[in-house]
Amino acid sequence: MAGRFAPRPAVTRTTTRGGEVAVPAPRAAARATGGQQRRYVPPGPLDLGLVLGPLRRGPADPTFRTTPDGSVWRATRTPAGPGTLRVAVRDGAVDAEAWGPGAEWLLEQLPALLGDADDPDAFAPRHRLVAATHRRRPGLRLTRSGLVMESLIPSVLEQKVTTDEAYRAWRLLVRKYGEPAPGPCPERMCVMPKPRAWALVPSWEWHRAGVDNKRASTILRAVRVARRLEEAAAMEPEAAMARLELIPGIGPWTSAETVQRSNGAPDAVTVGDLHLPGIVGYALAGDRDADDAAMLELLEPYAGQRHRAARLILLSGRVPARRQPKMPRHDISVL
């Protein structure tokens, strides 16, 4: 069942001592500034944090912000150009506003971004823990951004390093080589760099961001064929992963992490992860030493929905106690 998707008049915003108020804006001005609006009624419960959270790369991600009023802001590079999207749930409906050359594209893709193409009813819990989490999280839907590079590049940065190191690299590189996000963004937001801008990042700037030559080289190979990789967003997840893995340096872990976000792939389970097999093994079988093979065997009853099952297991909070130190940081920027 698809949600309803209807246009709303554009507005401008005027700040007063008492706060911010909405004022109707002329249509011509709206077209000039890109302040377009839409209202979308989802087909069921929707939790913005759960749906859009996977697109955020750390609390200081310059492409993603949340505000105290519950709004989520996203700055991204669309096929039509840079754009900023603000979404908020109000009385069961989603109010969205977008700015920039990519505004229209972002609003057209809004239902898919919010999991409209996802089918949570196809999921049948097979374990008590999974069933309990499934009941507690009715607003979980799998996002489909329709954009490959914005998920591929940070996933490459996350290869074989701590998440803090990867988030730092993404933050530094996007702020330095990206561009200011269009619209009245909260705080400082940026759109990720164009493929050519990534290609022109000097070797010493990769080094300052803590990115080793292997990961930098993988990103450089990917941006050279960015257009072909972006086509993967319209493919079936298996075919999309196969296309991504044609790039040296991109393996099953990175391709799965990408298509989970770009294609909304419910079965793209992440293999090769340092922690996930142990978490899944512990949650479903009490086996904290499970490897990829054991994890896949445990998730076999969820074939077709293994990524959703893994998300629910992670959301359950049932994780084994840490028995060893965290992965050590390897900050090459200070070498």
Note the topology.
Blueprint: E1 4-8, E2 11-16, E3 19-24, H1 27-33, E4 36-41, H2 48-52, E5 64-66, E6 72-78, E7 81-90, E8 93-99, H3 103-108, H4 110-113, H5 128-136, H6 149-157, H7 163-177, E9 179-180, E10 190-191, H8 195-199, H9 203-208, H10 213-224, H11 226-230, H12 237-244, H13 252-262, H14 276-285, H15 292-299, H16 306-316
Antiparallel strand pairs: 1-4, 2-3, 4-8, 5-6, 6-7, 7-8, 9-10
Helix pairs in contact: 5-16, 6-10, 6-13, 12-13, 14-15
Count of discrete alpha- or pi-helical segments spanning 4 or more residues: 16
Let me know the number of strands.
Answer: 10
Q: What coarse outline follows from CA principal-axis ratios?
A: globular
User: And the CATH topology of the domain at 149-250?
Assistant: Endonuclease III, domain 1
Q: Please tell me how large the radius of gyration is.
A: 20 Å
Q: What profile does the largest beta sheet have?
A: 6 strands, antiparallel
Strand order in space, largest sheet: 1-4-8-7-6-5
End-to-end gap: 55 Å
Uncertain segments: 1-34
Helical residue percent?
Answer: 25-40%
Mean pLDDT, all residues: 89
The assigned CATH architecture of the domain at 149-250 is Orthogonal Bundle
Summarize the structure in words.
This protein is of the alpha+beta class and 335 residues long. Among the domains are: 4-11 and 25-117, TATA-Binding Protein (2-Layer Sandwich), CATH 3.30.310; 149-250, Orthogonal Bundle (Endonuclease III, domain 1), CATH 1.10.340.30. The chain has 16 helices and 10 strands. It has helices at residues 27-33, 48-52, 103-108, 110-113, 128-136, 149-157, 163-177, 195-199, 203-208, 213-224, 226-230, 237-244, 252-262, 276-285, 292-299, 306-316, and strands at 4-8, 11-16, 19-24, 36-41, 64-66, 72-78, 81-90, 93-99, 179-180, 190-191. The strands form 3 sheets. The chain has a 6-stranded antiparallel sheet. Strands 2-3 form a two-stranded antiparallel ribbon. Strands 9-10 form a two-stranded antiparallel sheet. Helix 6 packs antiparallel against helix 10, helix 6 packs antiparallel against helix 13 (252-262) and helix 12 (237-244) crosses helix 13 (252-262). The chain is globular, with a radius of gyration of 20 Å. The model is unreliable at 1-34 (pLDDT under 50).
